[in-house]
Amino acid sequence: MKNSLFIQEAYLNGEFISSENTFEIINPSTNKSIGTLPNLTVEDCKKVIESAHEAWLSWKNTPVGDRCAIVRKIYELTIQHKQELAEIMTLESGKPLSESLGEVDYGNAFVEWFAEEGKRSYGETIPSMNGTTRISTIKQGVGVVAAITPWNFPLAMISRKLAPALMAGCTMVLKPASQTPFTAIALAKICEMAGVPKGVFSVVTSKDSKGLGKELATNPLVRKLTFTGSTEVGSTLMAQAAETIKRVSFELGGNAPFLVFDDADIDAAVKGAVAGKFRNAGQTCVSINRFFVQESVYEEFSQKLAQAVKNLIVADGLAKNSQVGPLINASAVKKVTQHVEDAVSKGAKILTGGKLIEGNFFAPTVMTDVSDDALIQSEETFGPICALFKYKTEEEAIQKANDTPFGLAAYFYSENVRRCQRVGEALEAGMIGINTGLISNASAPFGGIKQSGIGREGSKYGLDEYMEIKYLCYGI
Question: Is residue 205 part of a domain?
Answer without folding.
Answer: yes
